[in-house]
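User: Quick one: structure for sequence A, then sequence B.

Assistant: Sequence A:
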Amino acid sequence: MPRVQTSPLLEVRSHYFGTGKPTRLTIYEDRVELLTANDPVRRTDQRIRYEQVAQVYVRRGWLFSEVAIETRGGGLLRAVGLRPNDANEARRLIEEHTTP
């Protein structure tokens, strides 16, 4: 079954200066995707459906913030080096879609 391409509700990118690893957090109507470039050749691509989200929280730093998404299975997706406003908006959208 082909995957239907939908436009994201929100896409935020980390600041390389704040993390050392470029990260892209993309929020869709049915899922959240996190892409992390570990080095110029390797990258980590993670996806989670809203039914799997247990908790979302934002940790604010001095310049940048982090969004952490805890899964029902005990996994953790972390997007670090985000602007505080982007991190708060991401958390709001995720919580909006996980609340029944």
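Sequence B:
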Amino acid sequence: MVRAHEEAKALALHLIVGSELRIESGPRLVALAQTREGYGNLSQLISRARRRAAKGQYRLLSQDLDGGLPDCLLLWLPDRDPAADPVQEQAETITHGRWLQERFPGRLWIGVVLHRRGGD
């Protein structure tokens, strides 16, 4: 992180700091720090999740985000499980979306990822 910050400063670029997170039994997110305080909040969140798990892993719980992660923007990356029941999956997606919207009003977007393969 320090090297990235130094290099961005040397090149007069704005560095966007973030992290991809997966809530245990919940949605996948990308959190982007807007300010230095947001970076601190994101770092604390990651540290808390890492302390809960074995080395090299993390365990992020939904209640970890009850405070809304101030000064961070969130991209929600809804997953699609081809083996899942479509009705159940839709209900879970709606539940996750409402839950996230309550905690991140005005700071939540849906991210879309298009993965290309060799035959596309």
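The mean pLDDT is 91. The two ends are 35 Å apart (CA to CA).

User: Thanks, that's what I needed.
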